[in-house]
Specification:
By secondary structure, this protein is α+β, with helices and mostly antiparallel strands. It has 23 helices and 19 strands.
């Protein structure tokens, strides 16, 4: 919902022209409340910006150039001015006016193009005109719909031109294989994916979801269209804020940019509850004075008065009231209560739900009563129990690593009980506070069942003296393990629903693109880890059922002790595919498949498991005869190694540099496991120090340029590179691989001689130990030591 054009008179928005001051919308982004202050803007409407001054930040947080509150630090006046904002119906248009005024100021400073400003203004006007009909599900004005689509296209194109520089693309969690990087433009949400293979890189523009906005508007897909409209204007305002802040710290423009970011963030947060027509509840927070002094002494910004953004509304459907805290718009807090806000309710809300740090919240209730709520910032008891459970389980994991079975089981059992108690406490607390949902109830209940079923199974294990005895001697062990696994699956399903709901909230809510990416990565990581643990739990339950009632014994399997059926010899071979050699072969096959698929060709190894198994047999055969594939016999392999080392030893060493090391020269790749190999891959393995020296002598100009910018060239990333040569350097640092034609001294002629000798293609590279291409199996050349 947009509120542009819904206020008038002294509450009207300010804008580019006097006759447009009451019609302009604006979007939202993020900053800390302590850093929010109102910028001095030209042509501003009297009264409106003053209201925002008092509702946005404390005087302690203001910097030079910001508009000061007339009443200074008078709490009563701050609360009074907050009350004058009334609620979202007044506050959103006021924020929109302030945002638009700053955009205009940025144009005048030459920091924002007129094209971006005009297109943003036109899009806001058209979408504001369309909004009432869309909300009423009535027929929309076709002309306004067409103008909105055209303006969306123009704004994206203008913003894309302004922000097209590589420096505006920031690294984000990768969407491509491990040999690539992903970057995003936070202003247009454009994504680029760059893949690397040795010294070759390929960058693909994956576009932006916002490019679909014109078509969404034309098709009348209004939910997505209004979401995209807000996100596009979000990007525009983030660009405005960043451009202003480039004028330097302590400048008037920096203060204006910070204010723009805060107003934008708050505007986006308020839009989430705009249809509730919420009322503002005036409130401000006084942190504990000792805490403030400690923060100031440490050189960190600290405010002794922080105006808050608290709202409430009544749900017409069930008559319940909702308390809503947007003081930090990217992390709102909500509680459902039975009646209008009271002092007792607010005390509970600030202490138990929003859980403010130690200090005091001063607030004014709807009837005018002033209240004070003390906050402690204390962690809830069940959270301490939960943390203790994690710690105990971690100790158990250490015992498992050390091989102490029974002590580990005791620790895991204690951890399971702690987790169940924690879930029970959370369930009771959220039900009492009115913050429980169906999903949280299911999660808590499932965790309680899983925890105590696990405790029961582990208790039997302890009494029996081990898992084997527990399976054989107790009829309750397998059912308890199965119950725990079933509860884990229920938790997994509930958590998946929570995760995707939260991902949607993050994407549509307030916050910078960087913060959104970080939050989404954390959520997805949690889900992935939980999925893995659940899979292990289910697999464990299945294994227990399969072993139930059979005679069991502990056998040696690939250096580890495992539980198996007496007389079953097949277990000893089950781990073969997990050996280091098999993992390296699989990695190489997957890389080959990706390269072929990228070129539109079918993968060479469609059935990886079968291919790895077959290749391991071929590798064992090559290993037993003492030389890899691609050579007539062992003598030919030894001559190859001698020629390689002698040729490299004859290369001149650069001044101040080092010779190319050949102490760990080895053949790897398909020659190690593919009888029909058509090329020979040679790796000159080096340690970190040797690799760094080779980098410095191979890229002297690029190393000097990067160092002059204050960046360590030996630890640089692709985003640090400015030229093609610097990207080659960055890729070598990232992958830990130097090709024959990039290293100094050059080794291309050595490669050519080896190809003439073998009649096969030869690839020659310097490979850093532990780097991306340090993958065996290796056949070390004559005179080279075997790996440690």
């Amino acid at each position: 919902m947009s509120y542009a054009g819904k206020s008038s008179g002294t509450q009207g928005s300010v804008g580019a022209r006097a006759e447009e001051r009451t019609r302009q919308p604006s979007p939202g982004k993020q900053t800390l409340v302590e850093q929010a202050f109102a910028p001095p803007v030209q042509q501003r409407a009297p009264g409106q910006h003053d209201r925002l001054d008092h509702g946005a930040a404390s005087s302690a947080a203001r910097t030079a150039g910001a508009v000061q509150r007339k009443e200074g630090k008078d709490d009563a006046k701050i609360l009074e001015h907050q009350a004058s904002l009334q609620g979202t119906d007044v506050e959103i248009p006021a924020l929109e006016g302030a945002l638009l005024a700053t955009r205009l100021e940025t144009v005048k400073l030459g920091l924002l193009s007129q094209a971006s400003f005009d297109a943003g203004l036109a899009l806001s006007q058209a979408m504001t005109q369309l909004q009432p009909a869309v909300s009423a599900k009535a027929t929309v004005d076709r002309e306004a719909q067409s103008r909105a689509a055209d303006a969306a296209q123009q704004l994206f194109a203008a913003l894309q031109r302004e922000t097209a520089g590589d420096k505006n693309f920031k690294d984000v969690p990768s969407m491509v294989p491990s040999s690539g990087t992903t970057s995003q433009n936070p202003y247009t949400e454009e994504v680029r994916a760059t893949t690397y293979f040795l010294f070759w890189s390929n960058t693909h523009g994956l576009g932006s979801w916002l490019q679909k906005l014109p078509e969404l508007i034309r098709q009348g897909k209004w939910t997505d269209a209004f979401r995209g409209y807000r996100r596009l204007l979000d990007g525009l305002d983030l660009w405005v804020a960043d451009q202003l802040r480039k004028r330097g710290k302590g400048t008037r423009e920096e203060a204006t940019g910070n204010a723009q970011q805060h107003y934008a963030q708050l505007r986006t947060g308020l839009e989430q509850i705009a249809d509730k027509h919420a009322t503002r509840l005036p409130a401000l927070f006084h942190p504990d004075p000792q805490t403030v002094e400690k923060e100031k002494a440490a050189g960190r910004p600290a405010a002794d008065t922080i105006p808050m953004n608290i709202y409430f509304w009544k749900d017409a459907a069930d008559g319940k009231y909702h308390l809503y805290d947007l003081t930090t718009p990217s992390r709102p807090h909500e509680q459902t209560v039975d009646g209008p806000p009271t002092a007792t309710m607010m005390n509970t809300f600030f202490e138990e739900v929003a859980r403010y740090p130690e200090g005091e919240v001063h607030f004014t209730l709807p009837g005018g009563t002033v209240g004070v709520a003390a906050t402690s910032g204390k962690t809830r008891w069940y959270e301490w129990v939960g943390y203790a459970g994690l710690a105990i389980a971690a100790v158990g994991l250490a015992f498992v690593t050390a091989g102490a079975s029974i002590p580990a089981t005791i620790c895991f059992a204690a951890g399971a009980v702690a987790g169940g108690v924690s879930a029970g406490g959370h369930l009771v607390d959220t039900a009492t506070l009115g913050t429980a949902t169906t999903t949280t109830i299911v999660l808590d209940a499932a965790q309680i069942v899983a925890s105590f079923a696990s405790f029961g199974a582990m208790s039997i294990t302890i009494r029996a003296g081990g898992a084997a005895a527990a399976v054989a001697g107790s009829r309750w062990f397998v059912p308890l393990v199965g119950t725990a696994a079933g509860a884990d699956v229920v938790q997994m399903v509930a958590l998946t629903e929570v995760t995707f709901k939260e991902l949607t909230k993050i994407q549509n809510g307030a916050g910078t693109p960087e913060d959104k990416q970080r939050a989404m990565a954390v959520l997805l990581t949690q889900l992935i880890v939980t999925s893995g643990l659940t899979a292990l739990s289910v697999q464990g339950a299945r294994n227990m059922r399969a072993l139930s009632g059979k005679p069991l014994e502990v056998v040696e399997q690939n250096g580890a002790k495992v539980l198996g059926v007496v007389g079953d010899t097949s277990a000893a071979s089950l781990g073969e595919a997990d050996t280091a050699a098999a993992k390296d072969i699989r990695w190489q096959m997957e890389l080959k498949n990706r390269k072929l698929t990228a070129k539109g060709e079918p993968p060479r190894y469609p059935d990886l498991d079968a291919a790895v198994k077959q290749s391991m047999s071929a590798f064992e055969a090559a290993k037993s005869r003492g030389f890899p594939y691609g050579f007539k016999d062992k003598a030919a392999f030894e001559d190859f190694g001698k020629q390689l080392k002698e040729s490299i030893a004859g290369k001149p060493t650069p001044n101040g540099g080092i010779p190319v090391p050949t102490g760990e020269a080895a053949v790897h790749g398909s020659s190690a496991y593919r009888p029909a190999t058509d090329d020979i891959d040679v790796a000159l393995l080096v340690d970190q120090e040797q690799f760094d020296r080779l980098i410095e002598q191979s890229f002297p100009k690029e190393v000097a340029k990067v160092s002059a910018r204050g960046i360590d060239p030996l630890r640089m990333t692709m985003s640090d590179a400015r030229t093609a040569a610097e990207k080659t350097l960055a890729n070598a640092v990232k992958t830990g691989c130097l090709k024959r034609d990039k290293v100094v001294p050059r080794l291309s002629d050595v490669r050519d001689k080896l190809e003439a000798t073998t009649g096969k293609g030869v690839d020659l590279s310097i490979v850093k130990r532990g780097g991306e291409f340090d993958h065996g199996p290796y056949f070390f050349l004559s005179g080279s030591p075997s790996p440690p």
